[in-house]
Specification:
The chain is mainly beta and about 200 residues long. The chain is built from one helix and 13 strands. It has one helix at about 130-135; strands at about 1-5, 10-15, 25-35, 50-65, 65-80, 85-90, 95-100, 100-110, 115-125, 140-155, 165-180, 185-190, 195-200.
Length: about 200
């Protein structure tokens, strides 16, 4: 099974799945420079707009009793625009890896308009895949978010966005625990130079 865009294969899925009780699964998903512009029609226009390309490689292997997922995702020249605040962020090219059903981020993040990064580091443990699919609360997170002089907003006065102005922030946040019982701790500070105006919009 494959997906071609502009005469190029960008997504390929292959493998086998044995439906017998003693059967197993072996699947491989490859993503090669998938244009994220092709994803935009499936995202609400006022929520998010993406440019750039996505690369990745995933394997799913094991028995029906125990399935392991390994692989990675990598963003290539990806910009993410949030129309509600009229600001564009650049995602870093560091790989997001998966090993034995655990997603790991190291030095991954995004840069604001002033090129200062917000970094996400840590892990998300999916655990047993069959149990996770029936109860997402079994997913466990251990994530650290840090930023210094990160620019959250940079937009001139206009008739479209909910806010205009500039906002800068320092962040130190820790997100830990299972999804159904997450704890969030840390600090977020707005810095000098922040000046925002919120505008009310008619229906």
């Amino acid at each position: 099974l494959s997906l071609n865009l502009n005469d190029k294969e960008v997504v390929k899925l292959g493998g086998k799945y044995n439906t017998s009780s003693e059967g197993g699964v072996k699947l491989k998903l490859s993503i090669d420079e998938l244009p994220l512009l092709s994803v935009n029609p499936f995202i609400p226009a006022d929520l998010l707009k993406l440019t750039g390309e996505l690369n990745g490689d995933f394997s799913l292997d094991g028995s029906q009793e125990k399935i392991n997922m390994d692989g990675f995702l990598q963003f290539q020249d990806v910009d993410m625009t949030l129309p509600s605040i009229g600001t564009t962020f650049t995602l870093s090219p560091e790989k997001i890896t998966m090993k034995d059903n655990t997603i790991t981020m190291y030095n991954f993040g995004m840069s604001g308009p002033n090129k200062q990064p917000m970094l996400l580091e840590g892990s998300i443990a999916l655990g047993d895949i069959k149990e996770m699919l029936s109860d997402f609360g079994k997913i466990r997170s251990d994530i650290l978010i840090t930023a210094s002089e990160f620019q959250l907003i940079n937009v001139k006065k206009n008739n479209k966005t909910l806010v205009y102005g500039k906002a800068f922030s320092d962040m130190f946040l820790v997100i830990q625990g299972y999804l159904n019982n997450l704890t969030l701790g840390g600090n977020v500070a707005l810095l000098n130079g922040t000046e925002l105006t919120y505008t009310m919009r008619d229906g």
